[in-house]
Amino acid sequence: MRRLLLALPFALLPLAVAHAADEHDHEHGSLGAHEHGVGRLNAALDGQTLELELESPAMNLVGFEHAATTDADKAKVAAVRAQLEKPLALFNLPKAAGCVVAMQELESPLFGDKPDADDDHDEDAKDEHHHDHSEIHAHYQFTCAAPGALKTLDLATIFNTFPATQKIQVQLIGPSGQQGVEVTAKAPALKF
């Protein structure tokens, strides 16, 4: 299954390159890799295994990207982490599919994880363009007793829970093939 998710970005590379070209002017040369309001979801359904990888700027989920130092910020980070630790509710998976969480991993500098080496910046924090772009990564693997009941993936709960998320770029591999689609709060569902 891990191989399947790793192959997903390459399978949809032409879509990503086209999208990156469109976004190039909006991001300081980062080709849209970190855009507030925009999350990314890789989804793969292979037999009874459903794997979901959600990546989002922390701004979309907690409302800030700096290290949580105040009690209010720490409480917000803890609340968001608690919500992410309930993926069955967050992804609104149909009960008929009989999905159970087989594995979940949450990573973010806000959760106390060490930032990636490429996220490190010079100590010149006074420069407006040198600030951390904290991301939150959530990786879930589900085992589904009746995967045929997974007709759609409804992301409405994510948009309702995290209203700063305006759109999610989804790359999906399922029984009907692969697709790349952008979902919004007004159209939050896609078909497998």
Protein model, in words:
- This protein has six helices and eight strands.
- It is α+β, with helices and mostly antiparallel strands.
- It has one domain.
- The strands form two sheets. A six-stranded mixed sheet has the order 3-4-2-1-6-7. Strands 5-8 form a two-stranded antiparallel sheet.
- The longest helix has 14 residues.
- About 21% of the residues have low confidence.
Number of helices: 6
The largest beta-sheet arranges its strands as: 3-4-2-1-6-7
By helix and strand content, what is the structural category? alpha+beta
Could you estimate the helical fraction of the residues in percent?
A: 25-40%
Q: What is the rounded distance between the termini? A: 17 Å
What value does the average pLDDT take? 80
Largest sheet: 6 strands, mixed
Give the number of domains: 1
Cα gyration radius (Å):
17 Å
**DSSP summary, beta strand count:** 8
Which regions have little confidence, pLDDT < 50, spanning 5+ residues?
Answer: 6-32, 117-130
Strand portion, in percent?
25-35%
Helices and strands, in N-to-C order? HHEEHHHEEEHEEE
Shape: globular
SSE blueprint and pairings:
Layout: H1 2-11, H2 13-23, E1 38-46, E2 49-57, H3 58-62, H4 71-84, H5 87-90, E3 99-107, E4 135-144, E5 152-154, H6 156-161, E6 167-174, E7 177-184, E8 189-191
Parallel strand pairs: 1-6
Antiparallel strand pairs: 1-2, 2-4, 3-4, 5-8, 6-7
Descriptive keywords:
single chain, 192 residues, alpha+beta, two-stranded antiparallel ribbon, 6 helices, 8 strands, 31% strand, globular
